[in-house]
Give the backbone structure.
Amino acid sequence: MKKIFALALCAVMMLSVLAGCGGKSDAPADNTPAQNEPAATPDAAPAPEAGGTIGVCIYQFTDAFMTTYRNALQEILEGKGYTVTVVDGANDQAKQNEQINTFITQGVDALIINPVMTSAADQIISTVQAAGIPTVLINREPSAEQMAVYDKLVYVGCDAAQSGTFQGELILETPNGGDINGDGKVSYIMVQGDPENIDAQLRTEYSVKALTDAGVEVEQLNLTRGDWMRERGQEIVANDLAQFGAQVEVVFCNNDDMAIGALQSIQAAGRKVNEDIYLVGVDALDAALNEVSNGNMTGTVLNDAVGQATAAVEQMEALLGGKTFAAGEQSVYVDYVKVTPDNVADFMG
């Protein structure tokens, strides 16, 4: 009986071994993908866990819009658990170049850069590419050709041509289409930001183009560089009103800070916005929203700082997760929005 039991046990053990061997040879290993399963792509790469270090370079802390933007960036990044250092380029490209190199030496995981000068994009891109640092450029857009050399680079911003178009449309939507004195043309002055900056160039061009595309005759009385600064807007418009007087029907400003300065000079000259002169800006700063609400600005254009900051962080995390960008697909845009007395309450508070 013991002999029979031993033989039976041996047979059972042999069957178990055969079954185990058969299962291993017939089924693929757990880590072998099925033949019809697509390979993973960089787009599908997961975002990294929080805790990385991020360097943020801002062209100038005194810029009112970029103050809102950088504060939103810092809040979003720190809320996600990143260690963030934000530095002020003080409108000095050489200084910003040093800051970028310092961040690279410190071994940051990613960079978010608001260039001092778009003409310096080649040098900035070459530097971050050599270091292999995932980089998001914000607010000042290089050309597609410049960005195409590095696939771990993306630009997040708004289409500046759209903001200029919206400024022109704000004038077209006034009761007289901007022709206050009824002489058949719109006479304007243009307070430009930095003419080297692509946003300033496109806002300047497309604000007027919106009028001419609508068949409106225009007359440029003056165009002066205001460097995005309130005091320069005030100075320029004071001089232009003294020179051209009632000829000035429209004041275009490339940003709200200059428009607020312009308003001070308009009021000092005894002019009344929306009665004998029109005034438009871009950014929808709180101060400008208040003036639109009070009837002291014809309108402004929302440059969505929080929306752009959110998109910049999303793209940064995609890069950190392994995403790369093909040439021609490296710009991510957030829409502008026209702000008028009719909808300004939606943007206040």
